[in-house]
Amino acid sequence: MAEERLRVQVAGRELEVSHLDRVLWPGDGLTKADFIGYLLQVAPYLLPHLRDRPLVCTRYPDGAGAPGFYQKDAPAGTPPWVRTWPHRTREGRRIRFILADEPATLAWLGQQAAIEIHPWLSTIHHPHRPDWVVFDLDPGPRATFAMAVEVALLVRQVLAALELEGYPKTSGATGLHVFVPILPEHPYPVVTEFARRLAGVVERLRPALVTTVRAVAQRPPSSVYLDFLQNGLGKTLVTVYGPRPRPGAPVSMPVTWDELERGVDPGTFTLRTAPARLQQVGDLWALAEAGRRSLTPACRRLGLDVAAGRPLPSPV
DNA sequence: GCTATGA
DNA sequence: TCATAGCAACGCAGG
DNA sequence: CCTGCG
């Protein structure tokens, strides 16, 4: 059977697709056609959260059961209408990051088998100043999702004491992400230091439940790893509504605190089920986007000298 | 999934 | 003509 | 210094 390439129109753009029957999620029977169809279905919800953010993709052309690879630089052959943003890394490397601002770009990423889409925490308008603080809650091998929820509620509580609001989403794997929408006022090092201190507070509240230690061997297997180090230039977490290359084709889904407290099963959010949920509950993440606040007062309360543009050593 | 490369 | 390599990245902590 | 980690 000859390889079939198809020219298709997507929202006014022309692109080529192929291998539409290739199974990307073995065991789930989900094909590349399903994947592209999903991306186009959720495009109205997804695109606003990707807009103007450099993307890092992980691609699985041979399916989620085979090795994938990261891609940052727009590959040769990228359609000319795909928007890119040239960036010079500290090491002087030039990277043309992909920006997704229209449905056709998502379809093209689907054709590229870019199963995971990871947007930066800052936009190209303020590349060095993030507009999210993120916490990645990862239950250890002997910990449960319910324990991750417990930790998320603690994070929420500490944020509330600082008059900040956190928004949770499932990670699409075993854990949770808590995102805090902030005004892009401070450079990454300040935000990282803020996150470090907040994580420290949470860890001290429940030392048996929470660990902030990076070395896997040193983490109690029954604790939840509270990772604040993803708050950095070029660091990313998987996008909201983004699928993962895991059995069941789970997606990272925003949830309400109420859903978490009621014990929602993160496994229910998949490529197959997410579109219906989006139709029913709408874009919960738009609420988060609408809630941006200054991080400055919270920094001050945690003893961070914001004016210096970088954290000062803790006065103790 | 696709291009650039070197044989 | 064909097979294959490349496709990110880097600071930070612990040892 | 090297290594593991995300």
From TrEMBL:
Residues 31-285 form the DNA ligase D polymerase domain. Pfam families: LigD_Prim-Pol. It comes from the Bacteria. InterPro entries: LigD_pol_dom, NHEJ_LigD. This is DNA polymerase LigD, polymerase domain protein. PANTHER family: BIFUNCTIONAL NON-HOMOLOGOUS END JOINING PROTEIN LIGD (PTHR42705:SF2). Signal peptide: none annotated.
